[in-house]
Structure formats: structure tokens, C-alpha cells
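So, who can interpret the following?
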Amino acid sequence: MKKALRHIVPVLLCLVAGAVAGSMQTESLAEWYPSLAKSPLTPPAIAFPVAWTLLYICMGLSLGRVLTDGDKRFVTLWFLQLAVNFLWSFFFFYLRCPLAGLADIVVLDLLVILYIRWVRRATPSAAWLFVPYLVWILFATYLNAYIVMENPREKSLSAAAVTENILSNTKNQSIMTHTLPQLPYAMEALSPKMSRETLEYHYGKHLQTYIDNLNRLIAGTPYAAMPLEEIVCKADGAIFNNAAQAWNHAFFFDTLTPAQQPMPEKLAAALAGEFGSVEAFKEAFTKSAVGLFGSGWVWLVGGPDGRLSILAEPNAGNPLARGLKPLLTVDVWEHAYYIDYRNRRADFVKNWWDLVDWQKVAGRL
């Protein structure tokens, strides 16, 4: 029994530490983290709690092996790396400072390497139990570094900076407050192809969060007085992500209709002239939407020469930033379809075609 407790207690300790760290992440995961530009290799959200649960079990079992058969001097190093692991959630999610998180996780990498190197001589099994953990945090280091590089403003953003931005918002009279646009149809009008519940979350929560984040981030900056479209064309990092996501979503929802009418002849002719036929366009567009890796948007755009093309953009990509004219888009972020279709993106795109307002698309030509 005593031997079993030497393994069970460390596992429980790790799981409790993970649960506390997770509680610090909740608000940022809902409001801040989705707005960041992330690596295309970022796993789906569900992968993180599953992976960390398994890794915490391995970490606890490793300490159990040390307590049973190894050198007790390694216990201090084990607790040190767990503390540094915990601090990463504090720096990255609670303070919302990816740069501090990156520095922390680099220290964690070194501590874990030292632990594996030293403990393997006395207790090889304890070292092997840490190998998956090392692989995962090295990958996490890359993901964290990508966020730091692709979100320049976030390098120095902390809780204090957020507070300062909010306070400056109340003082700056030139602030242009962006608000949630009204839908041109009732919340339940697109059902069953797009349910009321999906719109309540996708439009009512996700779009609102991007707008709220944008208003917070632009406070006290030159972007505060700019219209949304201008911000999309000029900004980068987190400001671009939130501005583009706000613009993209508003454009997406505005192009849906519960009472689809036949495609206007001028639009059909333009599509046939570029893609061979309307059906060929739909087939190519669907292939691009279903095949886009990770999250993003697929667009029908007009170029400076008037030619039409299909553009697949990851994350918050927007054609305006490329000097192209958006005509039509489909949102293939998972939150756009998960409630109604779970992971069946292809079914979502198939039904989305029946909701497209072709009159509005034609009017943008």
C-alpha cells in the first residue's frame, strides 16, 4: 500500500496542479487566445486537455519510481520543473504575455532535459516516463514562439497594459467604438441548415468577442479613429486578427438568407466565364473549403483586373489586405459548424450553399 501511494500521490498532485492552471486559462481561452495568430500545426482544442492529462500521469508515475527506487535528490528537481510548468499558465494565459510564457517554457525545457539526463542513471524507467513530456513541451515551445513572432503587440502585453488600454479608452474622445451588426434575418430563420443555437454562439458570442477585443486593443492607438475596413488593411498582430475576424464574420452573416433566389444571370455568366460553369465553380470552391487545413476562410474574390478567383486564407485572412475585392465567403473555423455538424465540415459546406444570397454576391461584382 505504501508503495502504491508513492505513485498515486504524485499523480494526483500533478492533476490538481493541472486543474488549477486550467482554471487560470478559462477566460483567456474564451476571449483572448482565439484572437491570436497561431501556427498551422496547432492541434485542435480538445487535444490539449487530453495530452496534458496523460502527461501529468506519466510525470507523477516518474516521481513515484524515484521515490521507490531512485535517488531522493531528484525530487527537488521534479518539483522545480512542476512549478515552472505551472507558472507558464500564469504568464501566458493569466497575464496574457506570450513573451514571458516563452521565456518560462524555455527554462522548463532545460529543467526537464536535466531531470531526464540525471535520473536515467539511477532509475531509467523514471527517465523514460518523462520523454513524452519533453517531446510535448518542445512542440509547445515552437507554438509559443510562433505566437510571439506573429503577434508583435502581444510581446509586451500584460494585465497592466490591458488595464492601461481600457483606461485610455475612456479618455480618448476620438475612439470609434465598433458594435455588433444586426442580422438581416431572425436567429431561427436559417434552421435547420444553420440552427438558432449556432447563431447564438457564432454570431452572438464569437463575433461579439472579436468586437470587444478589438475595441480594447485599439484604445489609445492610431487605429482608434479608423473604420473597420481600414484597420484590416493596415494593422497586424492581434489588432489585425480581431478586426479581420469581426469584418469577416459580419460579411459572412450578411451574405446568408433564409429565402434563396436564383443566381442573377450576370453572376452566373461571370462564374461560367472564369471557371467553365457555375457547377464547376461550386465544386472548386467546395474542394478548397473542405480541404483547408485547420481554421480559416475561403473566398470568391475579384482582382484589380476584374477576374474572379478562389482564395483560401488560414486563420483571420482577409482579401482586403491583399488588395482584392471580397464577393463571397464561407467560414470554416470549427465554431462555425460544430454545434450542428460536429466534425462534418463537408456537410456544413454542402448545406451552406443553400443559404447564399446570390443577389448580394452579384451586387458586389
